[in-house]
Write a structure and sequence with these properties.
single chain; alpha/beta; 11 strands; 33% helix; 22% strand
Length: 273
């Protein structure tokens, strides 16, 4: 099944698309004290009807929405608010949030694209199988730019999320040489032989450049024990081999369904940021 386009759209893209046709108000958390739902820099766009994004929900957001729409309607000129998250708001966080409000329109799109779109971390995903497809869907709204690599050119779906570049590489491990420094790497090809070739290429690059912070290999403990012995036979030290994470995914999630694995791995990747 191909990936549906809706899976590729995050709230920021939706907000900017709406702003091209209707005015809105950008709401930004500028400062916080104590326990609060979201930190400084959190943003959302509010329109006459509806909004995109969130600054944390609850009565805080309800008040922010109301104020933004008053500003949009010309019923106020106040562009800052400070809210204490106590009993008066029905939120017991106990902290305080300062908000800034800015009326925006299509003319502000270039600037807002820079402000709203998150910095994305490069990720090389080797393998276009079921788990790879599920992972691409799971990563769509997250701050990663995905380079999706497989030795089989026909494996990729017709429609992939924004921020995903599909690449045919034969031999597949050749793509390791020109990965963007700082790339996270996930290895889940269709064969153990390919997986091993990619792991070896990553370890060789890591030995020279040391610029791949995370290299994860899908598989069981048994698979990893076999790989570890083969890597030792190829002259890699225990310290070098220890750079490979296998199995992948945060502990405690044991489901084998592709979507379950994808969620566990996506969470693990977020921990590396």
């Amino acid at each position: 099944m191909g990936i549906q386009k809706e899976a590729s759209v995050n709230w920021m893209e939706l907000a900017l698309d709406r702003l091209a046709h209707e005015p809105g108000v950008r709401v930004c958390v500028t400062a916080t004290q104590g326990s609060v739902p979201r930190g400084p820099g959190t943003q959302m766009l509010v329109f006459g009807r509806g909004e995109e994004g969130t600054i944390g929900g609850g009565h805080l957001e309800f008040q922010a929405l109301a104020h933004a729409r008053h500003l949009l309607a010309g019923q106020t000129t106040q562009t800052t608010l400070r809210q204490v998250l106590g009993p008066s708001l029905g939120q017991c966080c106990g902290g305080a949030v300062e908000l800034a409000f800015e009326a925006v329109s299509a003319a502000d799109l270039p600037r807002l694209r820079q402000l709203l779109m998150p910095r994305r971390t490069p990720l090389a995903l080797f393998g276009g199988g079921h788990v790879g497809k599920a992972l691409v869907r799971a990563l769509a709204p997250l701050p990663f730019t995905v380079r999706w690599i497989d030795s089989r050119d026909e494996i990729f779906p017709d429609d992939v999320p924004d921020g995903v570049a599909c690449e045919h590489s034969s031999p597949v491990q050749a793509a390791v040489a020109d990965l963007v420094p700082g790339s996270r790497v996930l290895i889940m090809s269709f064969s153990h032989a390919e997986d091993l070739d990619i792991v070896v290429a990553c370890l060789k690059r890591q030995r020279v450049q040391g610029d791949l912070p995370f290299v994860g290999l899908i598989g069981s403990q048994t698979k990893w024990a076999t790989f570890r012995h083969r890597l030792e036979d190829r002259g890699f030290s225990a310290e070098e081999i220890g750079h490979i994470t296998c199995p992948i995914g945060i502990p405690g999630i044991t489901g084998k369904e592709p979507e379950v694995i994808a969620v566990a791995v996506a969470a693990q990747l977020l921990q590396t940021l």
